[in-house]
Amino acid sequence: MGQVWRGPELARTIEMIEAELDQAWAGLLAERGVAAGSAEETRLGWLVVDNPAEHDWRVVDAAIDRLPCTDCGSGLTRGPQTCHRCTYHHGVRFAGREVDRPDVPPGNERAIRVACAVARNRDRYSPRARVGYELVLPDLVAGMLPTTRQAQAGKALVNKLTPEECDEVATSADVERLTRDR
What we know:
The chain has nine helices and no strands. It is mostly helical.
């Protein structure tokens, strides 16, 4: 994607998630006997995004990554906020199935799904939403899930940052340091 990430831990996490997306897509192609790069792959991609509840969210995101927006010409969901098709399909991605992995708290997969969508689609979210979700994503992938109280406390700290500070912080410690006296 060519994105410069908030820090090396987030970069590694996104790289791992994108590898999972590619693996999930390759699995669907193999299951359906579809060749990568074919017109049939494109048709399958549209079938997936038109029926997201029938697929794991990783398959849905992988399909979205491979499709063009027929309205704005960008990659699907990557177009401007004013592109109704991109905005619609960005919302559709949240209908994909989210099955929690073994030995993680219930809701962990949903949290990963949302944080991943924010991190991979930064232009669709506010600076505060980006910093909050991007900083927690590596911990979510590691199997953690903040309690409601922890999430609210983290959000309260992030809300004390200026938009410029949001784009500068690389760690939760940075957030705590900048907001300590506010």
